[in-house]
Design a protein that fits this description.
The complex is a heterodimer of chains A (202) and B (201). Chain A has 202 residues and is mainly alpha-helical. Chain A has one domain. Chain A contains 8 helices and 2 strands, in the order H-H-H-H-H-H-H-E-E-H. Chain A has a two-stranded antiparallel sheet with strand order 1-2. In chain A, a hairpin with a 2-residue loop joins strand 1 and strand 2. The radius of gyration of chain A is 18 Å and the shape is globular. With 201 residues, chain B is α+β, with helices and mostly antiparallel strands. Chain B has one domain. In chain B, the strands form 2 sheets. Chain B has a 6-stranded antiparallel β-sheet with strand order 1-2-3-4-5-6. The longest helix of chain B has 46 residues. Chain B is globular, with a radius of gyration of 22 Å. Classes of the chains: A mainly alpha (202), B alpha+beta (201). Chains A and B meet through helix 4 of A and helix 1 of B.
Chain lengths: 202, 201
C-alpha cells in the first residue's frame, strides 16, 4: 500500500473504493438526508470536515495509542470534531442545521470515518492519511450529490430549490420519502456494478 | 510504564484535550446559537400577532410559554402562545397568536416539526394549512373540518381545515392548540392574563 502514488491514493475514494457505492458505508445519512440537494451537500461537507481532521489527528498520534483502547480513542476524537461541526452549523447555518436534525450528531457513528481510522490512518503517514481522507470525502460528496439530485428533481421537480421541471410535471412524492431513498440507492448501486463489470471485462 | 497505566494516561489525556477544546467552541458559539433560536421565535410571533413589537414572557411552563405582546406605543397588541406537543412522528413546537381580547386566534406558525415530508410536513405551508388558522374563534374547543374545504371562508369560526392525506398531523396540531387554549382560559380566570373587554357586542 505504501508505494501507491499520491494520485492513486486520492482517486481510489472516488470510484474503486467509493465509500457508498463500493464499500456500502455511511448509508444512514446517505438515505436519510438526500431528499434535497442542499441538505445532502451540507451533510457531505460536515462529514468531510470530521473525516479530514480525525484522520490528521489519528495519523499524528497513532504511535502513542495503545491498541487495546484505540477504538475508544478514535471515537472520542471523532465525537469532538462532530460536536464542533454541529455547533458551527447551529451558530452560522441555523436553517440547514434544523433541516439536518439529529443526523449531524450521528456522524459520530458514520462507519466511513471510524473505518478509515482503523483501516488507513492508524497505519499510514499524516500526509497519506490526508490524501486518503480527501479522496474518500470527495467520493462521499459525489455519492450524496448524485442521490440527492435524482431525488429532488423527481420528488419535488426542483434542483437546489429552483424549479427545473415544467408545470406538466407531477412530483413523485415517493422519491422524497424513505422508500425513494432505497429505490434510488439500489438503482445507483446496480448501475455502478454494471459499469464495474463492463470495464473489468474489457 | 505498564500497559494499563499507559491506557489510562492516553485516554484521560485525549478526553481532557477534547473536553477543553469543546468547552472553547461552545463558548464561542453559544451566544450566536441562542440568538438564532430567539430570532426564529420572534419572527414567528411577528407573523401571528399584528403590530407586536415587544415580547414579555408572562408564563413559562414545560411545554408552554406565553408572551404578552405590546405594540410600539406600549399598548397591548395581543398574546403569543408557544406550545410543544406530540405530533405524528415527533414533537411539534408551534406558536399561535391571540388578539387583545383573547377570544380570537390571529394566526399560527410552526417552529419545529418532523412530520412526513410531502404529507404531514404541509402543516408548515401557508396554502395547505396555516391560512386556515387566521381569525379563528378561541372561546371554545376547535374542531377539524373533514373532508377538507378549499377556502377559509367555507369554515365555521371554530373549525380548522384538514390536510388531505395528513389527518393525524392536522389533528395533532389542533390538539396542541386546544390544550394550550384550555390553559389560557385557566390563566384568565386566575388573573395571570388580563384582557381588554370586548367592545359592546
Amino acid at each position: 500500500m505504501a508505494n501507491k502514488s499520491i494520485k492513486a491514493e486520492f482517486l481510489k475514494g472516488l470510484w474503486e473504493e467509493n465509500p457508498v457505492f463500493r464499500q456500502l458505508l455511511g448509508l444512514c445519512p446517505t438515505l436519510a438526508v438526500t431528499g434535497t440537494v442542499i441538505t445532502g451537500i451540507a451533510m457531505a461537507l460536515a462529514t468531510t470536515f470530521v473525516l479530514i481532521f480525525s484522520s490528521l489527528v489519528v495519523a499524528s498520534i497513532k504511535k502513542l495509542i495503545p491498541s487495546q483502547v484505540r477504538i475508544a480513542t478514535y471515537i472520542v476524537i471523532i465525537a469532538s470534531f462532530v460536536t464542533i461541526a454541529d455547533q458551527f452549523l447551529k451558530a452560522f447555518f441555523y436553517p440547514i442545521s434544523e433541516a439536518l436534525g439529529p443526523y449531524v450528531p450521528l456522524i459520530v457513528v458514520n462507519c466511513i470515518i471510524l473505518g478509515r481510522q482503523e483501516a488507513f490512518s492508524s497505519r499510514n503517514s499524516v500526509g497519506r492519511s490526508l490524501i486518503d481522507a480527501l479522496g474518500m470525502s470527495t467520493g462521499f460528496i459525489l455519492a450524496l450529490f448524485a442521490l440527492s439530485t435524482i431525488r429532488e428533481i423527481l420528488g419535488a421537480g426542483t434542483f437546489l430549490g429552483y424549479q427545473v421541471m415544467g408545470p406538466w410535471f407531477k412530483p413523485w412524492l415517493i422519491m422524497i420519502l424513505p422508500a425513494g431513498a432505497f429505490i434510488t440507492l439500489g438503482i445507483l448501486l446496480g448501475t455502478a456494478l454494471v459499469i464495474e463489470s463492463k470495464t473489468k471485462r474489457s | 510504564m505498564t500497559l494499563s497505566a499507559r491506557m489510562i494516561v492516553v485516554l484521560t489525556a485525549i478526553g481532557l484535550i477534547s473536553g477543553g477544546f469543546l468547552a472553547g467552541v461552545a463558548q464561542l458559539t453559544r451566544e450566536r446559537i441562542a440568538l438564532n433560536i430567539q430570532a426564529e421565535i420572534e419572527e414567528a410571533i411577528e407573523e401571528v400577532v399584528d403590530d407586536a413589537e415587544v415580547n414579555q414572557v408572562i408564563l413559562e411552563e414545560d411545554d408552554l410559554i406565553i408572551y404578552r405582546e405590546l405594540d410600539d406605543a406600549g399598548q397591548l397588541a395581543g398574546y403569543a402562545v408557544q406550545a410543544t406537543g406530540v405530533g405524528f412522528q415527533d414533537k411539534i413546537t408551534l406558536i399561535f397568536g391571540l388578539d387583545e381580547t383573547v377570544t380570537r386566534i390571529t394566526g399560527l406558525s410552526i417552529i419545529e416539526q418532523k412530520e412526513t415530508p410531502g404529507l404531514g410536513a404541509k402543516i408548515t405551508e401557508w396554502d395547505a394549512f396555516l391560512q386556515f388558522w387566521e381569525d379563528r374563534d378561541a372561546t371554545g374547543l376547535l374542531t377539524l373540518r373533514k373532508p377538507a374545504v378549499r377556502t377559509p371562508e367555507e369554515l365555521l369560526p371554530k373549525e380548522i381545515n384538514t390536510i388531505t392525506a395528513a389527518t393525524i398531523s392536522s389533528k395533532k396540531v389542533l390538539e396542541i392548540v386546544n390544550l394550550s387554549l384550555e390553559r389560557v382560559r385557566e390563566l384568565i380566570n386566575e388573573g395571570t392574563i388580563t384582557r381588554e373587554e370586548q367592545d359592546g357586542e
